[in-house]
């Protein structure tokens, strides 16, 4: 291999490695952002469920709870059944 070909090959390897590292870093960032988004959504969902449980214990009607929390009526009804079973 000539010196010129060797230099071109080394340049190519360095460029390729740079693309690889950039892609790897982008992948980590996207994964982290995605994980944070999932965590936030799970937190919002759990907060809605907790609010619904509290409202059920205060004898607020299931349809009002569903409307105010954005939870499906079926979910609120299931929570009500669970709370009654525990009582």
Write structural notes for this entry.
- The protein is an all-alpha fold and 87 residues long.
- It has one domain.
- 89% of the residues lie in helices and 0% in strands.
- The protein contains three helices and no strands.
- The chain is rod-shaped.
- The N and C termini lie far apart (83 Å).
- The mean pLDDT is 81.
Arithmetic mean of pLDDT: 81
Termini separation comes to 83 Å
Helix content: over 70%
The computed structural class is mainly alpha
Instruction: Enumerate how many helices there are, as a single number.
Output: 3
**Total count of strands:** 0
* Main β-sheet description: none
Helix-strand pattern: HHH
**Any idea what the radius of gyration is?**
27 Å
**What is the 3D form?**
rod-shaped
- Described by its quaternary structure, the protein is single chain
Q: What is the total number of structural domains?
A: 1
Summarize the model shown.
By secondary structure, the protein is an all-alpha fold. It is 89% helix and 0% strand.
Secondary structure layout plus pairing:
Layout: H1 3-57, H2 62-69, H3 73-86
What key attributes describe this structure?
mainly alpha, 3 helices, 87 residues
